[in-house]
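Forum: Protein Structure Q&A
Topic: Joint prediction for protein chains with partners

I've read a bunch of threads here and the consensus seems to be that you should model interacting components together rather than docking separate models afterwards. I'd like to see that in practice. Below is the full input, 1285 residues plus whatever partners are listed. Could one of the regulars post the assembled result?
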Amino acid sequence: MSGEARRSADGGRRTGRKTGAARRAGSGRRPSTVDRRPPTPADRAPAWQITLSVNGDPYRVSVRPNRTLLDVLREELGLTGTKRGCDQGECGACTVHLDGRTVNACLVLAIDADGSEVTTIEGLARRGELHPLQRAFVEEGAIQCGYCTPGMILQAAALLRQNPSPTSAQIRTGMAGNLCRCTGYAKIVKAIGKAAEVMKGQRKGRAS
Amino acid sequence: MEACATHGPSASAGGRVFRAALPPFEYLAATSVPEALRLLAKFRGRAVLLAGGTDVLVQMRTGKRVPEAVIDIKRVAALGGGVKVERGGRIAIGALTTLADIEHDAKLRRLVPLLPEAVATMASPQVRNRGTIGGNLCNAAPSADTAPPLLALDALVRLHTRKGVRTMPLAEFFTGPGRTALGTDAVLGAILVPKPPRGLRAAFRKHGVREAMECAVVSVAVAVAKERGTIRHARVVLGAVAPTPLRVPAAEALLVGHPGGPLDLLAAAGEAADAARPITDVRGSSDYRRDVVRTLVRRALEEVAG
Amino acid sequence: MSGHRIVGTKVPKLDAWDKATGAARYGHDVSLPGMLHGKILRSPHPHARIKRIDVRRAEALPGVHCVLTADRVRVGKLGFLGDHPVLKGDKVRCVRDEVAAVAATSEAAAEEACALIRVEYEPLPAVFDPLEAMQPEAPRIHENAPDNLVPHRYEFRHGDAERAIAGSAHVVQGTYRTQFMTHCCLEPCFALAAFDPAGRLTMTSSTQVPYLMQSHLSRALGIHGKDVRVLQPTIGGAFGSKLDTHPYEVLAALLARHSGRPVRILYTREEEFVCAPTRQPMIIRMATGCDREGRLTGRVCEAILDNGAYTSWGATTPHIMLVGISSLYKLEHVSFRATCVYTNNPWSGAFRGYGNPQGTFANEQQMDELARKAGIDPVEFRIRNANDPNSTTPQGFRVTTCALKECLDTAATRVGWREPKRPNEGVGIAGMFHVGGGGRVYKSDACGVIAKLDDFAHLTLLTGATEIGTGSDTAMAMLAAEELGLPLGNVSVINNDTDAAPWDVGIHASRTTFIAGNATLGAVREIRRKLLPWAAKELGCSEDAVELHDGSAWRRDDPARSAPIEKLVRTAHFREQGEMFVGQCFYDPPNQFQDPKMRGNVSATYSFAAHAVRVRVDPETGKVKILKFVAAHDIGKVINRLGLEGQIEGAIAQGIGYALTEQLRIDGGRVGNASFLDYKMLNAADLPEDVEIHFIESADPAGPYGAKGVSEAGLIPTAAAIGNAIRDATGVRLHRLPMSPESVLAAIRAGEQEALDSELEVTGPLTRSGT
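Posted by a regular:
Agreed with the consensus. Here's the joint model:
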């Protein structure tokens, strides 16, 4: 049974965009068999090896089962741009892209991200060039204390991918999972609308 | 005078520490239904199934659940499968289908828009990307937003047990707050939505303080089919006002056979308010919830039966 | 626009790029080699005697370095009145109370160790309602505070308010109750403490008062202030919550001292909800009168504040609460008394607006009601009573610039005050008065700035003025750039290290742009004075003929002649007996510390605003939808339009939450909704799309380029404006915050019942007359 219970490289539903190589590399081998002693304090629980791609870079990390993707990004990989706000999926500060979809990194077990592709705020700018959303947030004054900003921008990026020309109301609903205490959201909504325009222009530019 | 002694534990507990870390647990990834069932049997109630994790991990973090083991069923193919329309028009939804996939599914939006509409009001886009319909039902919160629409659509659930597969009405699935007919040794496989009666019109209403990221203070799903101006089929279901999502047959009975005029609707709404057994908590008082039930049921019925 | 090149434009925050890319380092992002993790064990009881604490099992846990309890450390007390022990030894007075603290190699080990500490408590009778706490038979929370009264009184009398009210044509009186609100900083609290081998403490903190924190820590830890250095990383929200030095910060230092290792304490979100300060609930009894012409005659106000178990700086909020009550409108007779009462609730602190939102909720609803009684339009009624420029208010506030009438007029016009309304719609308006030129709540209201211009014309501003997200850094940089004719990109601000930057009293009272802005101008004007002779020499003209802009010095009479500023600096550096360009200023505004009778011109100028709102109320669920929101603010002068709008928009959002949804539910001293799910802070989908902001530039002579403080103003009148709009829509007046759907519906139902009752009353006499 231990063999079956292992997270097998090809047993997942996660087909789609993943490359086979990445998934094989991240097969989540655990160090001991399934049948083992009762749970131990976290510090002594056996670690799993996982592999994940973050912002295009491959990482192999050893994690205990109770560690979240957020823990790994911040504490193991030093990617502190992803913020811890509530650890309960209620504030959106830890929003990242996991295989192309936004998730609260605090609600994803690190083991569960094995073999995945993750994009964090550090991976949004390309070769030093800010993403149109980053630029719009800066220019429109959508940032005050800034703690919500990385999660906001990543959620907005997913929103615009799904709906390149959202109305204000659609932006507001799409951003409802990201709390901001400083701005009252007005400038955030405006910045996302502006970035949508810019990105449409860029696509047109590329198409012509 | 309200000043009163508080009688809590004294010597046994040193006090309160706010824990940042998830409690330790054993992680097991099942790849098949039989394996998931074996693992469940092995841990005899001390394991929890993990699908999207958006409820389970929060419950573990807040200490509401402290399982020995977490059995990840995300990769059990038999529990997935997305949304399929079977021959005969019944819709089968794999338990692992994410809320986001339901929200955006073209077939559901065409055939039973009530469900995707209700799902769109749930939590945040991030949570809907991760959370599953099976998870929402198995979590069995009285306020679960998928339950009233599915009950209004007479949905069934397919359960996998060690004795085999069995199907039961969703109405029998909920047995109490956080409790279901699954017990500790079965897995929810799929949700089955029968082909809706001809001309069915349905509506979902949710009341909360906020427009989004909101747990229902009251939710209501109604479904009505009329023939030649007379209601022939009616469903009235309430959420967040009883230990389980609540169908109100008495209200339905007041509608069937009637044209659905204002007085019919008022009477049904009154019946629904009487049937509600809400608690008082930080989200609302019992009286307020009952009052809102009356309004929401009437408004939902006005939309579909008026 | 008076020829300014930078001031008055829209400028991104200096730190926006770092924040947009994830590069900004917040407290939670900072760790040190060898750092231990600290955790706090807190009381399970709102009031109990501690009989015994056993930490043996905790200490035996692998990874645990240090377990502290009150009897193991010598530590001073905190708080405005010094009534707050850092570790509680004899008894606990609320569920926040710190009973023990642990430092361990991991957070999990520290948590585990806390769980292994055994404490024997003897629960004591507790009291949670301030009115009950004041009764002689109530349990006593602090031995030296009879009737649980905080030993600090607030009383103000001007004229004879009681008599004035008695002689009024119309009087409105009522009792208003406000709730516990909490700051919800997106970054939970943290503290990181490290001692160097010589015993000097470096405290990394998101404090709003770094220099006061030095002395707080010095007193608490018994070390000299010179041995305390405070570093501030990027701060993830403050709003007043970090105006006090908190026990967890001292505990981080104590754990670091006892373990010999750096120690970091991070709050969880739940801990933040339970243990971070709140806006104090108030019970406000108020009466206001006016004469037949609608001129205010007098006002009497008594406020009871739920202080909670200990006294923070929040206990001084009556000072600022009173400013709106006494001075928003012309009043001849005012009487005010505020009493802070200890309860076994979590203690209250400072929060944006500092008592003024509570007071204004009462005061501006009374204005509305009074206008109705007097049969005068509420806008007209307010304009009739509005303060005028160059007047003195009963507290001795010298109002210099004042555009309240313009604010009221703009807000009313833009919201469509006289336009027809649909069923269940209503409009409401409220004004506000607040400190706008600093606020001398400490003996000092000063800020220091040192400016230095290098030989590439890069200007560094060194200042103690803290940036908590408001954009004060950017405003300072803009003022400096404008004054020296430099591009904004040439200016940076260093303000995160008490070792490096000069003193500031702290960021509060909407003071930083005004005070630090003036200090900045003082410092860069000194540089300008030093620079002009070099420019004049280079350009061959008199100093009067030199202009500085676009990074160069120009001859006013010959635009072809110019010299880059950096070249002038290099010229001055690279020569014998050269000169450096450093300027400094310690700006202390011309305002006064109030006397014990609450008189004195507490601010160098005052801000005014009016908010008008159009709402629709669902008469069957009580839900209030805001259809349009208009804010008109007398801000003196726009420095950074982008930042200014952001301050108002953000404050309005907090004000709407305060008005309609937010409430920390504290029952029996315990927080019942310690999560974002149930606290009901508003998200993007909840807030109105149609928000208009208008700035009225009254050009204050004391302000930097005429600017006044603004950061709190947007919150202050919001709840009252919404309350007035609900009254207009439904006919019922709510006296309690938040005006949640449930409470609005209850009021509507009660109003219906009252209407029914009064109908019956009318029929009563008719029947009698018939017999």
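Chain C is about 30% helix and 25% strand.
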